[in-house]
């Protein structure tokens, strides 16, 4: 079973090499790494070409944002299972894809996810938040629950059935997609109670007050458009993040 890992890049020359090395270092051999660049101008392409041998796909062209780029990756993916690793992020260890593949060995499984830690941008060994997902319960979607998107792997057939990222969203397209998928899939969802991804802090959704407000507005829209809930679910979603700052394992 092949796993497709998609990475979207744009002007990230300082971090993308870590991401590339992390994927290349996975012990699970039946994988492909698809790199979709938005036309970087800061030296990112030099880094990508230096690692070209490890990439199944390398595209660099203007796009309409990260969700457009990720959709391009999905369209080119050939694996039975699809996941994402952002340019600032790395796998927690070399066995991550092997554990994901083992879970998907059961044909009844449609989705696999795990835990994530937020780390310092300049020191990926220093954890500042721990996102322990917990076991999946469909009813929890109405209480604002969601898995960390970089840890979520889905069968590619689900994108064919339920669609890809909605480009109308600028920040919360991943939340919209997860709500759409998890509320409609009929197969099993497996939780791996282990850290799968180390994510650098300073992402798109929380780098300024205006973006935090926009993210909340888009989250609310995603909840409503997917028929999951409204303001109450949004409040619980935001409150659920507070314990992440106090967990240490």
UniProtKB/TrEMBL annotation:
Family annotation (SUPFAM superfamilies): Nucleotide-diphospho-sugar transferases
Record Pfam families: Glycos_transf_2
Keywords: Transferase
InterPro entries to which the protein is assigned, alphabetical: Glyco_trans_2-like, Glycosyltransf_2, Nucleotide-diphossugar_trans
Residue span(s) of domain Glycosyltransferase 2-like: 4-143
GO MF terms held by the record: transferase activity
Protein's name in the database: Glycosyl transferase family 2
Organism: Thiocapsa marina 5811
